[in-house]
Amino acid sequence: LLAPPVQRLVTELGKLPGIGQRTAQRLAFHLLRVDAEEAGALADAIRDVKAQIRECEICFNLADEARCRICQDERRDPAVICVVEEFGDVLPIERTHEFRGRYHVLGGALSPIDGVDPEDLHLAELYRRVEQSSPPVREVVIATNPTTTGEATALHIAGVLRERAPEVAVTRLASGLPVGGDLEYADEVTLGRAFAGRRAL
Ligand SMILES: [Zn+2]
After folding, report:
1. Which residues, by Cβ under 5 Å, contact ligand 1, an ion?
2. Which one of 47, 89, 189, 200 is separated from 151 by 20 to 30 angstroms, measured CA to CA?
3. Which tens digit of pLDDT belongs to each residue from 75-124?
4. What does the pLDDT read at residue 178?
């Protein structure tokens, strides 16, 4: 029913998370109504972000230079590393103002059923970082999601670090986060409390 270019836009928008067919159509019709400049600004923003944003060479957070802003920030404690699944988890933790260390973004969680094995995540880089850090790493806070895969990942990391870096304290966020939920959607107060109350793993 739709002209092919419009259908193509609807199809692309419909691939976005949380966007159903109807919303995709509504957004497409909105973009058809606005002037070319405004629609172009959206297209440019998408193109630029894909061209300019990469993974930080140390922590795999989003960066527009070789190192992300947090890794470049001298005031951030390099002796404490917070491990998260996705770069989308960094911002909610930053908003709690409970954490002044650095991050390590794994790029997912272990899930053998889905074919996600240790070598598919940035785990080797984490262990190397912990072993070679100067000043030495004092604590690794594991802030993977409170889901089955997030918990399995936390236990896996704790096990390896116990072997390879026994002097490093490994902690996990306190319970209180909605089980099965995603860190990304936790409210600041709950997340801040979970952070402050972290315990040894
Ligand atoms: Zn970084």
Report:
1. 56, 58-59, 61, 68, 71
2. 189
3. 999 999 999 999 999 999 999 998 999 999 999 999 999 999 999 999 99
4. 67
Tokens linked to 58: 């140390």
Residue 59: predicted pLDDT: 98
Ligand 1 center to residue 91 CA distance, Å? 13
Expressed in angstroms and rounded, the spacing between residue 61 Cα and the centre of ligand 1 is 5
pTM of the model as a whole: 0.84
Q: Are 10 and 28 in contact (CB under 8 A)?
A: yes
pLDDT digits (tens, 9 = 90+) for 53-79: 999 999 999 999 999 999 999 999 999
Residue 176: its pLDDT value, please? 67
- What radius of gyration, in Å, describes the C-alpha atoms of the chain? 20
> CA-CA distance, 120 to 99, in Å (whole number)?
27
Q: Taking a C-beta distance cutoff of 8 angstroms, is the pair 111, 168 a contact?
A: no
Please state, in angstroms and rounded to a whole number, the distance separating the CA atoms of residues 66 and 72.
Answer: 10
Query: 143 CA distance to ligand 1 centroid (A)?
Result: 16
Q: How far is the CA of 102 from the centre of ligand 1 (A)?
A: 7
Q: Which residues share a beta bridge with 81?
A: 102, 140
